[in-house]
Amino acid sequence: IEVVKAKNPAEVYFNTVGKEQKTSLITAILDETLKVTDGSRVRIRLLDDIMINDALLTKGTYLYGNVSGFKAQRVHINISSIIVEDKKKKINLYVYDNDGQEGLFVL
Length: 107
Hints:
Elements lengths: L2 E3 L22 E3 L10 E6 L3 E3 L2 E3 L4 E10 L2 E11 L2 E8 L9 E2 L2
Antiparallel strand pairs: 1-4, 2-3, 3-6, 4-5, 6-7, 7-8, 7-9
């Protein structure tokens, strides 16, 4: 299943003055404070619209991932399935931090 950042349909009609920030990266946040162990579930809120095949998941939608391990001060999180239009879809997404490395940096 292909998962990509959705294109904003308003881009065709509006020009914005300012720094252009087009990227294909999907942004999201962890919006809850947790203490996790291997296998824990984490809630991730999308900051972008995304397309999964032909289905649109809008900004603000929650995805749920599982902690798949700890390594080098990083928490690795994998998202293996989601519900889209009342159907379970198998996907394989990994969480990367702002520094481009897999996993979330923790102290």
